[in-house]
Amino acid sequence: GQNIDQPTEMTATEGAIVQINCTYQTSGFNGLFWYQQHAGEAPTFLSYNVLDGLEEKGRFSSFLSRSKGYSYLLLKELQMKDSASYLCAGLDSNYQLIWGAGTKLIIKP
Amino acid sequence: KAGVTQTPRYLIKTRGQQVTLSCSPISGHRSVSWYQQTPGQGLQFLFEYFSETQRNKGNFPGRFSGRQFSNSRSEMNVSTLELGDSALYLCASRESFGTSTDTQYFGPGTRLTVL
After folding, report:
1. Which of B97, B107, B108 sits opposite A95 (nearest CB)?
2. Are the beta carbons of A98 and A90 closer than 8 angstroms?
3. How far apart are CA B6 and CA B106, in angstroms?
4. Do residues B90 and B74 make contact, with C-beta atoms less than 8 angstroms apart?
5. What is d(CA A106, CA A108) in angstroms, rounded to the nearest whole number?
6. Which of A16, A62, B39, B66 has fewest C-beta within 10 Å?
7. Quick check: B35 and B42 in contact, CB under 8 A?
8. Can you give the pLDDT of all 109 residues of chain A as single tens digits?
9. Do the Cβ atoms of A42 and B56 come within 8 Å?
């Protein structure tokens, strides 16, 4: 089976750090993506992890553990503009993206 | 390079009508995927085309169809519209499969309202 799980909603405070988790079960695995989607807008690409480990891009970092079927997106120094949905997607053996339902992140002042 | 473009951006139709949405991928991208997104829902995969051939299809009724042209532009058609078809329809393109550049880039979407 193919399944991507992530929390429905999270709340964090401006200036803080938040970690959004994603677990996956796919028939074959070729990488994991994170996208950001503001309300009413299209998703925008954040990161793509193929190998285990942490990849950092400015305030955003993404981690992958293939053996555990687990990934997380870490957002540092949170800003109000980070309020958005964060979508996790796994690339299966047929190179098709399997999407999670998304995590709505609410940032409070 | 120009990004993924979709036309029209907004559309209002009535039940029973049919609609055609268009997507132009990023230059050089040969794969186009279509998604439906309703409020509060994740992305529901419709289908993917690569080099004019449908390579993957989601679990949508036959009223939803698509095609891809030789220039990689793609269209999707929904016939006999229902109220539940009201959604944001997103198109995404990617250059290739299974490489370090295997990343989907999304267009702005077409917001379809069925009355």
Report:
1. B97
2. yes
3. 10
4. no
5. 6
6. B39
7. no
8. 568 999 999 999 999 999 999 999 866 788 899 999 999 899 999 999 989 999 999 999 999 999 899 999 999 999 999 999 999 999 888 888 889 999 999 999 9
9. no
